[in-house]
Specification:
single chain, 364 residues, alpha/beta, TIM Barrel, 8-stranded parallel barrel, 48% helix, disordered N terminus
């Protein structure tokens, strides 16, 4: 990586920031459309906490998790590495606010039916009303992502269609078109199935940003690339690291293999590492320079406790499963030619569907 979190930066005063810190603040302001005073105020507050000592002289040594401290650490981190965008994997806007305060900035958020079912307000409604109607469930999902949307950056909010193995492309597309209108930074999540890829193909043609989820093989990622080729809007593919680890495979290998395969392509699909279970997996995704990583709150909290550590040149990931070998696949062929069947995709769909149906009224 280009960034080592352990290095010091030159001393400065807050009336005259050192060039590096000034540059980082300027980049943050530009990237997130934040005014300079909004960024410099926490830095000045941090200096006050330090008794007037310039913050840049103690930035890497101070203890505690004050708002000013956390934001300054993360801005410095974020603006320097910025190879991998960080998304929160969650379904509760209050959690989004809390994690944003902790690490300073969030580039985006991913949601899914299981996370929405765990939302505190949804759980209260389900308990009080003995389940929701399909329309009520959809409305609650919309309210949640509308609350999350303004809290995150340009990686957007991924909203997942409700799909089972036999859900048709048209059924998914109808949901996706409605969901895309909910917020200005929506990405529609389709499963990596035949119906999901057909829906994604049509979506990108009509300008809908997509995130293909439940990806467990290099062949599935190749199919995503081929199905969305020519897209004029961003496309994500989400390989699931932790669930591959669960079956005894080294899940991060899939992220590495997809990155290697896509290196020979046109760059229209970004790799969003998902199902990240621990800090080591997150750091390895940083070292692979995955374009994005979606991370649960507990792992981001662990990252903060470890001073927003980044992998250095000596970073080594300890694999617990068997390697996933790279396949030589040609991207410029029809997506239907790739084998997109995977047992974990089927199991993932079944789990999401079960959690979704658990929120519904028994009369639906």
């Amino acid at each position: 990586m280009r960034f080592s979190f352990a290095r010091e930066i030159r001393p400065s005063t807050f009336s005259q920031f050192d060039p590096e810190l000034t540059s980082l603040v300027s980049k943050a302001a530009e990237r997130y459309n934040i005014t300079q005073p909004a960024l410099t105020a926490p830095i000045k507050a941090l200096e006050n906490e330090l008794g007037g000592e310039p913050a840049s002289t103690r930035l890497l040594r101070i203890e505690g998790t004050s708002s000013a401290h956390s934001q300054l650490l993360c801005w410095r981190n974020t603006m320097t590495i910025r190879t991998t965008k960080i998304l929160l994997d969650g379904g509760d806007a209050s959690e989004t606010e809390r994690i944003k305060r902790l690490i300073g900035l969030l580039d985006g958020q991913t949601t899914n039916p299981s996370l929405i079912a765990k939302n505190p307000e949804v759980k209260k409604m389900v308990a009080a009303e003995h389940g929701l109607s399909i329309r009520e469930q959809m409305d609650e999902y919309r309210k949640i992502v509308q609350a999350v949307s303004p809290l995150v950056g340009d990686a957007g909010v991924s909203i997942e269609v409700f799909a089972e193995e036999d859900t048709t492309a048209d059924e998914m597309l109808d949901q996706g078109r409605e969901m895309f209108t909910w917020i200005p930074n929506a990405f529609i999540k389709y499963p990596c199935t035949r119906g999901g890829l057909l829906a994604a193909q049509e979506s990108v043609r009509s300008g809908i940003r997509v995130n293909i989820t439940l990806c467990f093989s290099q062949a599935q990622a190749a199919a995503v690339y081929a199905a969305t080729k020519g897209a004029k809007v961003p496309v994500y593919v989400s390989p699931f690291v932790g669930r591959l680890d669960d079956i005894g495979e080294n899940g991060v290998d899939l992220v590495a293999n997809i990155k290697r395969m896509y290196a020979g392509g046109d760059g229209h699909v970004a790799v969003l590492a998902a199902s990240i279970r621990n800090l080591q997996q997150l750091l390895y995704c940083f070292s692979l320079e995955a374009e994005l990583a979606t991370v649960p709150a507990n792992v981001l909290e662990d990252w903060a406790r470890n001073g927003f550590a980044m992998p250095g040149s000596d970073f080594k990931y300890t694999a617990t499963g068997k390697p996933i070998l790279y396949q030589e696949l040609t991207l410029d062929q029809p997506w239907q030619s790739f084998d997109i069947q995977h047992e974990l995709t089927r199991k993932g769909l079944a789990k999401f569907a079960a959690d979704y149906r658990a929120t519904l009224s028994q009369t639906v």
